[in-house]
Model the fold of this input.
Amino acid sequence: MKEHGMSLPVKRITRITVALIFFYGLYIAIHGHLSPGGGFAGGVIFALSMIHIVLAFGRENTMKVLSGAAASMLESAGALAFLLIALGGVFAGAFFLNFLPEGEPFSLFSAGTIVFSNMAIFVKVGAGLFAVFLVMALLRTDDSVQNNEGEDR
Amino acid sequence: MIPVFVIIPLACAFVIPLVAKKYEVLAPAVAGVGSFLLLVFSIWSIFLLGGDGHVVYEVGNWQPPVGIPMVVDGLSVLMLLVVNVTGFLSLVYSVPYMKKFTSARYYYTLFALLLAGLNGVVISGDLFNLFIFVEITAIASYALVAFGTERQELEAAFRYAVLGTLASAAILLGIGLAYSHTSTLNLADMAEVLSAEGAGGVVIPFVTVLFVAGFGLKAALVPFHSWLPDAHPAAPAPISAMLSGVVIKTIGVYALVRVLFNVFGMTQATTDVLIWLGIISMAVGVLLAIGQWDFKRLLAYHSISQIGYVVFGIGLGTPLGIAGGLFHLFNHSLFKSLLFLNAGSVEQAAGTRKLDELGGLSEKMPVTSWTSLVASLSIAGVPPLCGFWSKLIIIIAAFQAGHVIGAVVCIGTGIITLASFLKVQRYAFFMRKGEVKDFIKEAPLLMQISMVALAVLCVLVGILFVPFLSEVIQPATDVLLRGTGAFADFNLLGV
Done:
């Protein structure tokens, strides 16, 4: 069976760094209401961690973890979740109303719906950006096959 | 309940990719139900306006000018009708038409996003939000123009995207400058700040130039029109109908007119610019249309010319001129989208849209033929169809305003338009040239229904133009006539 991706040392290191990058993205998203960053920035970092896996292990292996179709579904689900949070406000009084208790300023569990909106954006942006990268990685012309000599990147 | 106009299409756009992968039939069903609801709500919005003529919704209960308001007034109601009537009927038409395309579910997702953007532009009471919805509309339409993914479509979409992005950059620069000058993005608040400041600054005239160029490109006024004759014919027929019937008016004419009249206030210079852009668009559009033999391309050039009428009428600035311009905007959305739908069913049946290769279709396709006759007579301004009244009002208004050149160009353009559509009728439908091919047959039922509905609307609006003018056009005209004071009575609630 053909080996996908880069050499063994790269794969070893990637196993460690990917988790770090992923959790950093999650951290940025969860602390969106407290520090710079938020759902969008966190989502981009999440997508970067997935792209890291594609580069090191090849896209065939990555697609077993998160396929393009699944990423597309996740993206829609994230957007829908964001809309539902905004809709929840309608039943409490106004579109996008922050209907949850705001809590103590500067503590992690505060800011009501903003945390959940950030998580929805995190999923949407992360999955969406990864899906875009996957589409670009899947599209290859005859030229690129020749240059890479069939190697999967 | 103003946010429904954004909530419904966005929910459709996000639900379709989730459910339609497994059950392909759910995509048109979800989009159809959504756009039907939008149509119902937009008709209901006519009766929503109370005595003061507008409804304001504060998103998230944030008070303006900090919060982002959604506003429905007379002009918004007119535009909501334009968007959602054509939107719903184009979507009905799409159901049989899009069967030949693969992954049609993406088409319905993009269509729902297009509707979300268009409705959002119309109800936005905030300059930056208006820009965001303009971009949603524009990006959805770039993708929809390229939906066929053939060489010609990709090229047209690429050109459209490049020029559209340039326009957006100009608009964004203008918004940035206006924001730094007035320290607010709320349309009502900005109007108040600017009228308190009075005339004489240099920032707002410069922003006006940026907006005229940016929104003028989106509206395909003549010096900025070069993308339209490629982009509109390349799209699938229902999208051509949406682009020509609705998109250029909403993200072009409506956005420009709303900002110029209600926020910046009209000056003699902007009036002249609008009038002359209108006159040039009318004349150049129709002259370029004469030589066209591609059915959809011919219609696209006529869109430029008809948008000229709209901008000329509104630019006159008199009550009658504005009423005529807005009435023509509504009528054009009916008959131009109907003509594009006709062109789509002709292309689907005959396999070509070259007028000189068609002929004798009236026998095989009676519904398409008759509805296109109604639309052709409407656009050419034959009484008692809707296009006649709006052109008549614009011409009378031009004479009253003392703009004889404009009035003469209006009349001349009308005559050439009539000639051009007689050509369409003769070559495509009535003249028999040899045997009519056997495989040509009438369009599927749903396509017929939406074409007939638009034709009936053309006739009804033409016959019942007096109540229509007083119920829908008059409140919209009033909003523009009130100028920068239009927002004054609901500005700064509680601030």
The longest strand of chain B covers residues 54-58. The two ends of chain B are 23 Å apart (CA to CA). The beta strands of chain B are 54-58, 69-73.
